[in-house]
């Protein structure tokens, strides 16, 4: 891997140009998932379970089918069943037996909102009417919502044959515990015995929704010859293709998925819900079918992240050294296995150099929608517990919480609980940047408090592809397979312009459909600027190599004697100075005479990603009469490696922090005694609005990743990890009360104040 | 059900359409008139993604019936620019990176324009409260607020 390009040489990277897709998004012409139509299109709607847990005895759709304007009805009988097996690395394993049941219930419905039939009809009104005519005979079963309740031996079972994985010998009785896992470093028991102080506390977090403003929507068209097309809003149209093909038994090459603009996702659009159903309905009806979820559907049946129950124990010396730590993490998976508890176990203590650590995790099913990735999945949950406990430890020994964390911060070479050693610098630098913020030492008023917390995220690499076309006028089209959630077209174009040595506005980045560019994993894990960026740079370098070879021919010298500098081919070596440098535009103009179109593709399975790290403090004021917590100031420092487009890096930090503020203070699912969601709308779910917030202050820290030509680490996720604990710690400072349950909503804070 | 005939003005153009009396203006705009710039985020008036301007007032088009548009003047995001010249708010949203995914942007723009048409010198707090009915999940609102304040400054010629 080549060294990181020196900052002084950069012309485009690090600047703040307008995003290439800005104008369509401010004029209303950008097409999102719900904005596509086709001639003859039908409207699909989905019948959802009113029960949290019930056996499906019978579904009778005959009356719906008889309604004029109804063209097709499907149930799970129209979708092939899948083999029960976990596929892929444990941290992100997929089981299609579960997935097919999540998109369309089979034997049982497992949560309110669980799909069990779908119709396609000429108008939305007819489709809605048809749903009412589908008769379902349910045997309602006892349900369980809470994770601790679900783990009890007498809890209602979602799967009567589920034996916990990860325990040897395997248990003989089934339970709702899908998996047990753990990590260990050193000898925690012995180390706890040597500690001056041991602090232990238990915590609960509520499941929270990603809260993207665009509900899942798609348009499908299936032809009689087996080919199909999909327009859908997702974080990865290749993932949509893989899952939809697998679930419906379609050959991969026969399904072309077009990436719509995506109206927010945050992890929630890495899986499929409506796409396979729309394709199945289109196949059965012979017409294109559009499905749009309602907001209620989104809340009731798409993934939140897990709620959790956790216990943390830390042992510290009076000088501030942490000698031992232990974490017990029980995460709700929702109706099917697959919570991010493994991430929680890995990330919780990752910011620190602790010689003796043990983490234990449980993945637990319950009658809620299946958990899906949400920004640094798993890490914010465990961080709330760990960072709250560390705050208690710092208080116990009377140490400043930032100084305490800096004393214990992990450095390159520090072993982690999950077995590898930290490879990258940046943690201490980020903490120091936060420490230097003038607000950190400012005095606070009555009922006000300051809190600190840190956050770790792996960041991602993985598979990405790009194709670069050098056009005859010296412009370049860069096609990638990465949906642009938050400005990645801009960073892609900047890296391409930098590498090719041309102006930013001469690069046109596009996101190509599944059949027009190489396979690319989803936009997620903070991987796009790193991994897709790397493949764009590689493709540009291939194009440069091709252009240099063509110039060598024109000049009748060896390829080795042509170099690329500042967007020009230049003679070098023994021919240095013999020819005028030839700019990209001139080379492009001669393409026909020198060998035809100049195009280069590259694909990578990128490795060498560096972790994301964020350090934050906030000031809050607690209203003693109402329990309302007001955020007075919020400062977030984050190591991004290098900021390709600083404005979009800052935007990621602001956005992650504000989602964290909502998680901390407002957001939760409220279920009635029948397991039905009572707040399935934005009004009652109450995400943060503009008037709730101050300006979030971001500090971009740049400790370049040596494994990326421009030093990129990733920016999207580490920022959501600290806020819940930072706010809880600030509330403690303001009131002397320790909040251990999220959300820290006014009634809970008031109860704590009165206790 | 017999459809209703509606005569109205949308983005300065005289428009006639037929709609069912139960159809919302949002459905009419998107499904009948193919003006898909106005977005549906919730359908219950809680997110502001479908905000349009009706006779100078901002309105969630999901809470407004298509038939109510009779005789009114409606502006959607498609009607903010002057030909190929962007409105200053549109330009400032792009310059300030005030959109990440962009789904809330049409509603934010219509709401912000309605504010600046009334008050071209709002405080940060006034902007925050004016836009409190427009949810954005990506940006944390910083850059949106900055863009609106900067646009106001340019409108004032300051």
Which characteristics define this entry?
heterodimer, A: alpha+beta, Aldehyde Oxidoreductase, domain 3, Aldehyde Oxidoreductase, domain 4, 3 domains, seven-stranded mixed sheet, globular, B: alpha+beta, Ubiquitin-like (UB roll), DNA polymerase, domain 1, five-stranded mixed sheet
Task: Tell me what you see in this structure.
The complex is a heterodimer of chains A (755) and B (158). Chain A is of the alpha+beta class and 755 residues long. Chain A is built from 21 helices and 26 strands. By secondary structure, chain B is an alpha+beta fold. Chain B starts with a strand and ends with a helix. In chain B, a hairpin with a 2-residue loop joins β1 and β2.
Secondary-structure blueprint of this entry?
The complex is a heterodimer of chains A (755) and B (158).
Chain A: H1 22-27, E1 42-48, E2 54-60, H2 62-66, E3 70-74, H3 96-103, E4 108-109, E5 115-121, H4 124-133, E6 135-140, H5 147-150, E7 177-185, H6 188-194, E8 197-205, E9 217-222, E10 228-232, H7 237-248, E11 255-259, H8 275-285, E12 289-292, H9 295-301, E13 308-316, E14 322-334, H10 341-347, E15 357-365, H11 379-397, H12 401-407, H13 427-435, E16 448-457, E17 462-470, E18 476-480, H14 488-500, E19 507-511, H15 528-555, E20 562-565, E21 568-571, E22 582-583, H16 584-589, H17 591-594, E23 598-606, E24 612-622, E25 629-639, H18 646-665, H19 682-685, E26 696-701, H20 723-735, H21 746-754
Helix pairs in contact in A: 7-8, 10-11, 11-20, 14-15, 18-20
Chain B: E1 4-10, E2 13-19, H1 25-32, E3 51-54, E4 57-60, E5 73-75, H2 88-95, H3 105-118, H4 124-130, H5 142-156
Parallel strand pairs in B: 1-5
Antiparallel strand pairs in B: 1-2, 3-4, 3-5
